[in-house]
Amino acid sequence: MVDDRDDADDGKPQEMQPEARREDTRAGFVALIGVPNAGKSTLLNALVGTKVSIVSRKVQTTRALVRGIVMEGAAQVILVDTPGIFAPKRRLDRAMVHSAWSGAADADAVCLLVDARKGADEEVETILRRLPEVKRPKILILNKIDLIPRERLLELAATLNQQVPFEDTFMISALKGDGIERLRQALAERMPPSPWLYPEDQVSDAPLRMLAAEITREKIYDRLHEELPYRSTVETDQWQARPDGSVRIEQTIFVERESQRSIVLGKNGQTIKAIGQAARIEISEVAEAKVHLFLHVKVRENWADDPARYREMGLEFPTG
Ligand SMILES: Nc1nc2c(ncn2[C@@H]2O[C@H](COP(=O)(O)OP(=O)(O)OP(=O)(O)O)[C@@H](O)[C@H]2O)c(=O)[nH]1
Protein backbone atom coordinates (compact mmCIF):
# COMPACT_ATOMS: atom_id res chain seq x y z
CA MET A 1 0.00 0.00 0.00
CA VAL A 2 1.29 3.44 -0.82
CA ASP A 3 0.21 6.63 0.90
CA ASP A 4 1.50 9.47 -1.16
CA ARG A 5 0.74 12.78 0.43
CA ASP A 6 1.22 16.22 -0.95
CA ASP A 7 1.12 18.65 1.89
CA ALA A 8 1.86 21.71 -0.23
CA ASP A 9 -1.51 21.54 -1.97
CA ASP A 10 -4.44 22.91 0.02
CA GLY A 11 -7.13 22.96 -2.70
CA LYS A 12 -10.79 22.52 -1.78
CA PRO A 13 -13.35 20.23 -3.42
CA GLN A 14 -15.38 21.85 -6.15
CA GLU A 15 -18.90 22.99 -5.35
CA MET A 16 -21.81 22.34 -7.71
CA GLN A 17 -23.39 25.34 -9.41
CA PRO A 18 -27.17 25.64 -9.80
CA GLU A 19 -28.49 24.64 -13.23
CA ALA A 20 -29.04 27.36 -15.79
CA ARG A 21 -32.60 28.56 -16.27
CA ARG A 22 -32.14 30.89 -19.22
CA GLU A 23 -34.80 30.48 -21.86
CA ASP A 24 -32.56 30.50 -24.91
CA THR A 25 -30.38 27.63 -23.74
CA ARG A 26 -29.67 24.64 -25.91
CA ALA A 27 -28.24 21.26 -25.00
CA GLY A 28 -27.68 17.88 -26.56
CA PHE A 29 -25.44 14.91 -27.17
CA VAL A 30 -22.78 14.40 -29.80
CA ALA A 31 -21.36 10.92 -30.36
CA LEU A 32 -17.80 10.63 -31.57
CA ILE A 33 -17.21 7.53 -33.63
CA GLY A 34 -13.97 6.38 -35.10
CA VAL A 35 -11.54 3.53 -35.37
CA PRO A 36 -8.87 3.20 -32.68
CA ASN A 37 -6.20 5.87 -32.99
CA ALA A 38 -8.28 8.18 -35.18
CA GLY A 39 -7.78 10.78 -32.46
CA LYS A 40 -11.09 10.75 -30.56
CA SER A 41 -9.53 11.35 -27.18
CA THR A 42 -7.30 14.13 -28.51
CA LEU A 43 -10.31 15.80 -30.14
CA LEU A 44 -12.42 15.46 -27.03
CA ASN A 45 -9.70 17.07 -24.98
CA ALA A 46 -9.24 19.84 -27.55
CA LEU A 47 -12.96 20.60 -27.62
CA VAL A 48 -13.45 20.54 -23.89
CA GLY A 49 -10.13 22.10 -23.03
CA THR A 50 -9.62 19.85 -20.02
CA LYS A 51 -8.19 16.42 -19.78
CA VAL A 52 -11.17 14.08 -19.62
CA SER A 53 -10.12 11.13 -21.69
CA ILE A 54 -6.82 9.36 -21.79
CA VAL A 55 -4.64 9.73 -24.87
CA SER A 56 -2.20 7.02 -25.65
CA ARG A 57 -0.01 5.84 -28.48
CA LYS A 58 -1.50 2.37 -28.26
CA VAL A 59 -4.83 1.38 -29.74
CA GLN A 60 -7.95 0.56 -27.75
CA THR A 61 -7.18 2.53 -24.65
CA THR A 62 -10.68 3.89 -24.24
CA ARG A 63 -12.52 1.21 -22.32
CA ALA A 64 -15.52 3.16 -21.14
CA LEU A 65 -17.91 5.83 -22.34
CA VAL A 66 -16.37 9.04 -21.07
CA ARG A 67 -18.17 12.30 -21.74
CA GLY A 68 -16.89 15.79 -21.97
CA ILE A 69 -19.07 18.89 -21.78
CA VAL A 70 -18.47 21.89 -24.00
CA MET A 71 -20.04 25.24 -23.14
CA GLU A 72 -20.34 27.43 -26.22
CA GLY A 73 -22.46 30.55 -25.79
CA ALA A 74 -25.89 29.43 -24.58
CA ALA A 75 -25.33 25.88 -25.81
CA GLN A 76 -24.14 22.88 -23.92
CA VAL A 77 -22.67 20.10 -26.02
CA ILE A 78 -22.25 16.77 -24.29
CA LEU A 79 -19.67 14.67 -26.05
CA VAL A 80 -19.80 10.92 -25.88
CA ASP A 81 -16.40 9.45 -26.54
CA THR A 82 -17.26 6.02 -27.85
CA PRO A 83 -14.88 3.14 -27.36
CA GLY A 84 -13.17 2.14 -30.61
CA ILE A 85 -15.42 0.33 -33.03
CA PHE A 86 -13.57 -2.68 -34.27
CA ALA A 87 -14.08 -6.39 -34.92
CA PRO A 88 -15.11 -7.90 -31.58
CA LYS A 89 -13.31 -10.98 -30.38
CA ARG A 90 -13.54 -11.20 -26.64
CA ARG A 91 -16.73 -10.57 -24.66
CA LEU A 92 -15.37 -7.26 -23.42
CA ASP A 93 -14.73 -6.15 -27.00
CA ARG A 94 -18.25 -7.11 -28.07
CA ALA A 95 -19.73 -5.11 -25.20
CA MET A 96 -17.64 -2.12 -26.24
CA VAL A 97 -18.83 -2.24 -29.85
CA HIS A 98 -22.45 -2.50 -28.73
CA SER A 99 -21.99 0.41 -26.38
CA ALA A 100 -20.42 2.57 -29.07
CA TRP A 101 -23.31 2.07 -31.48
CA SER A 102 -26.02 2.60 -28.90
CA GLY A 103 -24.29 5.84 -27.88
CA ALA A 104 -24.62 6.96 -31.50
CA ALA A 105 -28.31 6.09 -31.82
CA ASP A 106 -29.22 8.36 -28.90
CA ALA A 107 -27.17 11.35 -29.99
CA ASP A 108 -28.34 14.62 -31.56
CA ALA A 109 -25.42 14.40 -33.97
CA VAL A 110 -23.01 11.64 -34.85
CA CYS A 111 -19.47 12.61 -35.79
CA LEU A 112 -17.35 10.14 -37.69
CA LEU A 113 -13.73 10.92 -37.05
CA VAL A 114 -11.33 9.66 -39.71
CA ASP A 115 -7.55 9.71 -39.66
CA ALA A 116 -7.02 11.57 -42.95
CA ARG A 117 -3.57 10.12 -43.45
CA LYS A 118 -4.88 6.57 -43.24
CA GLY A 119 -7.99 7.39 -45.25
CA ALA A 120 -10.79 4.89 -45.80
CA ASP A 121 -9.09 1.67 -44.81
CA GLU A 122 -11.01 -1.51 -44.09
CA GLU A 123 -11.91 -0.53 -40.54
CA VAL A 124 -13.35 2.79 -41.67
CA GLU A 125 -15.27 1.01 -44.43
CA THR A 126 -16.86 -1.25 -41.81
CA ILE A 127 -18.16 1.80 -39.99
CA LEU A 128 -19.30 3.48 -43.21
CA ARG A 129 -21.35 0.43 -44.10
CA ARG A 130 -23.11 0.48 -40.74
CA LEU A 131 -23.46 4.23 -40.31
CA PRO A 132 -26.64 4.63 -42.43
CA GLU A 133 -28.46 2.48 -39.84
CA VAL A 134 -28.03 5.30 -37.36
CA LYS A 135 -30.86 7.70 -38.18
CA ARG A 136 -29.21 10.80 -36.76
CA PRO A 137 -27.54 13.77 -38.47
CA LYS A 138 -24.04 12.70 -39.47
CA ILE A 139 -20.95 14.82 -39.60
CA LEU A 140 -17.62 13.86 -41.11
CA ILE A 141 -14.46 15.04 -39.39
CA LEU A 142 -11.16 14.48 -41.14
CA ASN A 143 -8.44 14.61 -38.53
CA LYS A 144 -4.64 14.88 -38.68
CA ILE A 145 -4.73 17.30 -41.60
CA ASP A 146 -1.29 18.46 -40.51
CA LEU A 147 0.03 15.19 -41.96
CA ILE A 148 -1.31 15.22 -45.52
CA PRO A 149 -1.51 17.61 -48.50
CA ARG A 150 -4.73 19.50 -49.19
CA GLU A 151 -5.52 17.81 -52.53
CA ARG A 152 -5.60 14.40 -50.89
CA LEU A 153 -7.88 15.77 -48.18
CA LEU A 154 -10.41 17.07 -50.65
CA GLU A 155 -10.31 13.82 -52.54
CA LEU A 156 -10.92 11.84 -49.37
CA ALA A 157 -13.77 14.13 -48.31
CA ALA A 158 -15.44 13.64 -51.69
CA THR A 159 -15.04 9.84 -51.61
CA LEU A 160 -16.47 9.49 -48.12
CA ASN A 161 -19.38 11.83 -48.87
CA GLN A 162 -20.31 9.65 -51.81
CA GLN A 163 -20.71 6.69 -49.48
CA VAL A 164 -22.66 8.35 -46.68
CA PRO A 165 -24.77 11.53 -46.83
CA PHE A 166 -22.88 13.64 -44.28
CA GLU A 167 -24.55 16.94 -43.45
CA ASP A 168 -21.22 18.61 -42.88
CA THR A 169 -17.53 17.92 -43.35
CA PHE A 170 -14.82 19.42 -41.16
CA MET A 171 -11.08 19.23 -41.61
CA ILE A 172 -9.14 19.54 -38.41
CA SER A 173 -5.96 18.84 -36.55
CA ALA A 174 -7.04 17.84 -33.07
CA LEU A 175 -3.41 17.84 -31.99
CA LYS A 176 -2.56 21.31 -33.26
CA GLY A 177 -5.99 22.82 -32.65
CA ASP A 178 -6.68 23.73 -36.28
CA GLY A 179 -10.39 23.89 -37.11
CA ILE A 180 -11.44 23.15 -33.53
CA GLU A 181 -13.13 26.50 -32.92
CA ARG A 182 -15.29 26.21 -36.04
CA LEU A 183 -16.23 22.65 -35.19
CA ARG A 184 -17.14 23.62 -31.63
CA GLN A 185 -19.41 26.39 -32.90
CA ALA A 186 -21.04 24.17 -35.50
CA LEU A 187 -21.81 21.49 -32.93
CA ALA A 188 -23.25 24.10 -30.57
CA GLU A 189 -25.54 25.39 -33.33
CA ARG A 190 -26.90 21.90 -33.87
CA MET A 191 -28.04 21.44 -30.30
CA PRO A 192 -31.82 21.53 -29.75
CA PRO A 193 -33.46 24.07 -27.42
CA SER A 194 -33.24 22.61 -23.95
CA PRO A 195 -32.28 23.58 -20.45
CA TRP A 196 -28.68 22.76 -19.72
CA LEU A 197 -28.35 19.18 -18.62
CA TYR A 198 -25.32 19.66 -16.41
CA PRO A 199 -24.07 22.39 -14.08
CA GLU A 200 -22.11 24.88 -16.16
CA ASP A 201 -18.77 24.34 -14.53
CA GLN A 202 -18.89 20.56 -14.67
CA VAL A 203 -16.53 19.53 -17.44
CA SER A 204 -17.04 15.83 -17.18
CA ASP A 205 -19.84 13.67 -15.86
CA ALA A 206 -17.58 10.66 -15.81
CA PRO A 207 -17.53 10.03 -12.12
CA LEU A 208 -14.33 11.36 -10.70
CA ARG A 209 -13.49 7.94 -9.41
CA MET A 210 -13.54 6.51 -12.90
CA LEU A 211 -11.39 9.35 -14.14
CA ALA A 212 -8.99 8.79 -11.26
CA ALA A 213 -8.78 5.10 -12.19
CA GLU A 214 -7.99 6.03 -15.78
CA ILE A 215 -5.25 8.36 -14.64
CA THR A 216 -3.60 5.63 -12.58
CA ARG A 217 -3.99 3.21 -15.48
CA GLU A 218 -2.24 5.73 -17.71
CA LYS A 219 0.64 6.04 -15.24
CA ILE A 220 1.02 2.26 -15.15
CA TYR A 221 1.04 2.24 -18.92
CA ASP A 222 3.65 5.03 -19.08
CA ARG A 223 6.07 3.00 -17.01
CA LEU A 224 5.22 -0.59 -17.84
CA HIS A 225 3.80 -0.80 -21.35
CA GLU A 226 6.60 -3.13 -22.44
CA GLU A 227 6.05 -5.59 -19.61
CA LEU A 228 2.29 -5.20 -19.17
CA PRO A 229 0.71 -4.42 -22.55
CA TYR A 230 -3.08 -4.36 -21.99
CA ARG A 231 -3.66 -6.73 -19.20
CA SER A 232 -4.22 -4.56 -16.19
CA THR A 233 -7.14 -2.55 -14.95
CA VAL A 234 -7.66 -0.10 -12.13
CA GLU A 235 -10.70 0.43 -9.98
CA THR A 236 -11.34 3.16 -7.45
CA ASP A 237 -12.69 1.42 -4.36
CA GLN A 238 -13.03 4.41 -2.12
CA TRP A 239 -13.34 8.15 -2.63
CA GLN A 240 -13.76 9.85 0.69
CA ALA A 241 -13.89 13.61 1.19
CA ARG A 242 -12.34 14.59 4.48
CA PRO A 243 -13.31 17.51 6.72
CA ASP A 244 -10.02 19.29 5.94
CA GLY A 245 -10.97 19.40 2.22
CA SER A 246 -8.63 16.61 1.18
CA VAL A 247 -9.73 13.35 -0.44
CA ARG A 248 -8.71 9.86 0.53
CA ILE A 249 -8.70 7.55 -2.47
CA GLU A 250 -8.14 3.82 -2.50
CA GLN A 251 -7.58 2.05 -5.78
CA THR A 252 -6.92 -1.53 -6.75
CA ILE A 253 -4.75 -2.43 -9.70
CA PHE A 254 -5.79 -5.78 -11.11
CA VAL A 255 -3.32 -7.91 -12.99
CA GLU A 256 -3.67 -11.42 -14.36
CA ARG A 257 -0.66 -13.18 -12.89
CA GLU A 258 1.50 -13.13 -9.80
CA SER A 259 4.55 -12.29 -11.94
CA GLN A 260 2.76 -9.16 -13.18
CA ARG A 261 2.02 -8.17 -9.62
CA SER A 262 5.76 -8.19 -8.87
CA ILE A 263 6.37 -6.03 -11.94
CA VAL A 264 3.84 -3.44 -10.78
CA LEU A 265 5.28 -3.39 -7.28
CA GLY A 266 8.89 -3.19 -8.49
CA LYS A 267 12.00 -3.65 -6.41
CA ASN A 268 11.26 -2.54 -2.84
CA GLY A 269 7.97 -1.13 -4.05
CA GLN A 270 9.75 1.53 -6.10
CA THR A 271 7.61 1.15 -9.21
CA ILE A 272 4.25 1.41 -7.50
CA LYS A 273 5.51 4.33 -5.49
CA ALA A 274 6.45 6.18 -8.68
CA ILE A 275 3.08 5.30 -10.25
CA GLY A 276 1.29 6.51 -7.12
CA GLN A 277 3.19 9.78 -7.05
CA ALA A 278 2.51 10.59 -10.68
CA ALA A 279 -1.16 9.58 -10.42
CA ARG A 280 -1.71 11.51 -7.22
CA ILE A 281 -0.46 14.77 -8.73
CA GLU A 282 -2.80 14.47 -11.69
CA ILE A 283 -5.79 13.28 -9.67
CA SER A 284 -5.26 16.25 -7.33
CA GLU A 285 -5.53 18.55 -10.34
CA VAL A 286 -8.81 17.12 -11.62
CA ALA A 287 -10.32 16.75 -8.15
CA GLU A 288 -9.10 20.22 -7.18
CA ALA A 289 -8.22 18.89 -3.78
CA LYS A 290 -5.32 17.51 -1.85
CA VAL A 291 -5.29 13.77 -2.45
CA HIS A 292 -4.10 10.86 -0.34
CA LEU A 293 -3.79 7.94 -2.70
CA PHE A 294 -3.59 4.33 -1.57
CA LEU A 295 -2.82 1.69 -4.18
CA HIS A 296 -3.30 -2.06 -3.88
CA VAL A 297 -2.29 -4.67 -6.43
CA LYS A 298 -4.34 -7.84 -6.81
CA VAL A 299 -4.22 -10.82 -9.12
CA ARG A 300 -7.50 -11.57 -10.89
CA GLU A 301 -7.41 -14.00 -13.74
CA ASN A 302 -9.37 -13.41 -16.94
CA TRP A 303 -10.83 -10.07 -15.92
CA ALA A 304 -11.48 -9.25 -19.55
CA ASP A 305 -14.04 -12.05 -19.75
CA ASP A 306 -15.85 -11.17 -16.52
CA PRO A 307 -19.28 -9.55 -17.24
CA ALA A 308 -19.36 -7.80 -13.85
CA ARG A 309 -16.23 -5.88 -14.81
CA TYR A 310 -17.59 -4.31 -17.92
CA ARG A 311 -20.87 -3.47 -16.24
CA GLU A 312 -18.83 -1.51 -13.72
CA MET A 313 -17.13 0.27 -16.56
CA GLY A 314 -20.48 1.57 -17.81
CA LEU A 315 -20.68 -0.85 -20.73
CA GLU A 316 -23.88 -2.60 -21.69
CA PHE A 317 -24.39 -6.21 -22.56
CA PRO A 318 -24.70 -6.91 -26.25
CA THR A 319 -28.27 -7.98 -27.04
CA GLY A 320 -27.38 -9.93 -30.16
N1 LIG B 1 -0.27 14.51 -36.22
C1 LIG B 1 -1.41 14.39 -35.56
N2 LIG B 1 -1.56 13.41 -34.64
C2 LIG B 1 -2.73 13.32 -33.98
C3 LIG B 1 -3.81 14.21 -34.23
N3 LIG B 1 -4.84 13.83 -33.43
C4 LIG B 1 -4.43 12.79 -32.71
N4 LIG B 1 -3.16 12.45 -33.03
C5 LIG B 1 -2.35 11.36 -32.48
O1 LIG B 1 -2.94 10.11 -32.81
C6 LIG B 1 -2.76 9.17 -31.74
C7 LIG B 1 -4.10 8.59 -31.32
O2 LIG B 1 -4.88 9.60 -30.72
P1 LIG B 1 -6.01 9.26 -29.61
O3 LIG B 1 -6.68 10.55 -29.33
O4 LIG B 1 -5.46 8.47 -28.51
O5 LIG B 1 -6.95 8.30 -30.48
P2 LIG B 1 -8.33 7.58 -30.11
O6 LIG B 1 -9.10 7.55 -31.37
O7 LIG B 1 -8.95 8.21 -28.92
O8 LIG B 1 -7.85 6.15 -29.76
P3 LIG B 1 -8.56 5.04 -28.86
O9 LIG B 1 -8.57 5.58 -27.45
O10 LIG B 1 -7.65 3.89 -29.02
O11 LIG B 1 -9.94 4.82 -29.39
C8 LIG B 1 -2.04 9.93 -30.63
O12 LIG B 1 -0.67 9.67 -30.74
C9 LIG B 1 -2.32 11.40 -30.96
O13 LIG B 1 -1.33 12.28 -30.50
C10 LIG B 1 -3.61 15.26 -35.22
O14 LIG B 1 -4.47 16.08 -35.51
N5 LIG B 1 -2.41 15.28 -35.83
Features of this protein?
320 residues; alpha/beta; Rossmann fold; GMP Synthetase, Chain A, domain 3; 2 domains; 6-stranded mixed beta sheet; 3-stranded mixed beta sheet; 9 helices; disordered N terminus; disordered C terminus; binds guanosine-5'-triphosphate; Small_GTP-bd; ribosome biogenesis
- The portion of residues forming beta strands comes to 15-25%
**List of distinct ligands in this structure:** guanosine-5'-triphosphate
- pLDDT averaged residue by residue: 77
- CATH fold assignment of the largest domain: Rossmann fold
Estimated radius of gyration = 20 Å
Side-by-side strand order of the widest sheet: 2-3-1-4-5-6
Number of helices: 9
Assigned CATH architecture of the largest domain:
3-Layer(aba) Sandwich
The helicity comes to 25-40%
The profile of the biggest β sheet is: 6 strands, mixed
What does this structure look like?
There is one protein chain. The protein is an alpha/beta fold and 320 residues long. It has two domains: 26-190, Rossmann fold (3-Layer(aba) Sandwich); 208-312, GMP Synthetase, Chain A, domain 3 (2-Layer Sandwich), CATH 3.30.300. The protein contains nine helices and nine strands. It has helices at 40-48, 91-105, 122-130, 150-163, 180-190, 208-224, 258-265, 270-287, 307-312; strands spanning 26-33, 66-72, 75-81, 109-115, 138-143, 168-171, 232-241, 247-255, 291-299. The strands form two sheets. The protein has a six-stranded mixed sheet, with helices on both faces. A three-stranded mixed sheet has the order 7-8-9. α6 (208-224) packs antiparallel against α8 (270-287).
